[in-house]
Amino acid sequence: MQDAAPDAPIVVLTTAGSDEEAQRIARALIERKLAACVNVVPGVRSIYAWQGEICDDMEFLLISKTTPARFEALAAAIRELHAYEVPEIVALPTHAVDPAYATWLGEAVK
User: Fold this and answer.
1) pLDDT tens per residue across span 63-98
2) Cα distance between residue 74 and residue 106, in whole Å
3) Considering the entire predicted model, what is its pTM?
């Protein structure tokens, strides 16, 4: 493992309201080469404020692995494909990434 470089992979989080929507978004991100891998995690309970109300919903978490260069296109695709008016799109930097994985990821999103 080595310290991540400035162009190291990033992890992007978003949620979806159904398994069907989560799978549709995940497949589109892979097909468009915007993410190398998207994990779909079912059973996420989200409690949040929306339009003056406290909401409590079961959602599906999408964890996308991509590069900083692909973030804007990935975010645009999520906004295009998502049913939510304001979908969660949060990019997290990586501290350290296995070099072989980083190489694979970079090639997958070219």
Assistant:
1) 999 999 999 999 999 999 999 999 999 999 999 999
2) 14
3) 0.92
- Using H for helix, E for strand and C for coil, what is the string for the chain? CEECCCCCCEEEEEEECCHHHHHHHHHHHHHCCCCCEEEEEEEEEEEEEECCEEEEEEEEEEEEEECHHHHHHHHHHHHHHCCCCCCCCEEEECCEECHHHHHHHHHHCC
Tell me the C-alpha distance between 54 and 69, whole Å.
Answer: 35
Delimit the domains of the chain by residue range. 2-108
Instruction: For residue range 16-52, list pLDDT tens digits in order.
Output: 999 999 999 999 999 999 999 999 999 999 999 999 9
Whose tokens are 């109300």? That residue is 53
109 or 2, greater pLDDT: 109
Other C-beta atoms lying within 10 Å of the C-beta of residue 60: 21
CATH class for domain 2-108?
alpha beta
